Amino acid sequence: MSLRMLILAIVEAKPSTGYAITKEFDAVAGFFWRASHQQVYRELAALADEGLVRFKDVAQEGRPDKKVHAITVAGRRAFAEWYAQPQDIPRLNDPLMVKVFTGELGGVDNLIEQLSAARAQHLDKLAMLEAIQREHYPEAPADMPRWKQLVYLTLCWGLARERAWLQWAEQSEALLRG
Amino acid sequence: MSLRMLILAIVEAKPSTGYAITKEFDAVAGFFWRASHQQVYRELAALADEGLVRFKDVAQEGRPDKKVHAITVAGRRAFAEWYAQPQDIPRLNDPLMVKVFTGELGGVDNLIEQLSAARAQHLDKLAMLEAIQREHYPEAPADMPRWKQLVYLTLCWGLARERAWLQWAEQSEALLRG
DNA sequence: TGTGACATGTAAGCAGTTACATGATTTG
DNA sequence: CAAATCATGTAACTGCTTACATGTCACA
Questions:
Q1: How confident is the model at residue A93 (pLDDT cuts 50, 70, 90)?
Q2: Which of A9, A85, A116, B140 has the smallest CB count inside 10 Å?
């Protein structure tokens, strides 16, 4: 549902092709969502089926034809309805926590290794997010236009999550190492 | 995969029925995983198919018969293999972040409401986790037996995540309210 | 000559949710 | 008498991943 609505919001801002929407996802993927082109095409087809978007075939020279999708009135209505509904908080189901939980069977030394490897990945991700912040959001949040504030907040959540995770991991490794 | 392995670890510790495994999940669900009985039964059937667990039908008086599942040698090997493989960090796909990102189309006032509602849920969850901590883990982590340390660490991650989320939400609401 | 960008899809499968279904015993 | 607990499952569906598949053009 959220993916559908996210696509709807993207084509509302600017009519787009599936390809362009996928690129958009890749660009913000790092800090709040991820979707493959297969998913995007499937959802676009479903949205068109339900009349929430319509598309025009556009022929291009020297490039494949493309389908430019735009939101419909029904699409706007569906989005507004979804937006008003409260969301359940998402569950976690983190494979690493399974490894922590089953650490005695797996071997505590192996667990420590797993934690280290994960820490390296989270450090990379944090560095990436911090680079984005430095490059694209150097000004005070209060001075940003609304749309930029909103994207910035999703970035902030990514930063907060990574920092919290790293703190937890350091504390955990210290405890396990004794 | 993780669910399969989690089930394997549970029956390794103590041969169990699907029902008991589901109860076990419910007990730890709050802080690191969740699984319905349907999922558990399906995975148990698959594990038995692959020879990673075997089960015995046990007749009971005044209760339905039960299938007690135990891990096999192949099961232990499969678990060890899985445990050694590094895990990718899980992606998030949080519907609330979609609402933040699409806040201009949805309406910032509506977004603030959504954030408030989510905050209430996260506060509840944090309170629940803190209660568990007070009740079951009052001692110093270093003094706990290994198995308890491991469970405690998954609880700590839940606590850290909720606290980080709440901090982010407060900051976000403040920014959006101007 | 090969790789990367542009552009769109199918097919199979895994993970998880919701709803449906049964039936005995224990507790309030 | 009703609800909760014990105990097991099927069926349909949603969401997402992985692998397969096609074809052009630009650039190095």
A1: confident
A2: B140
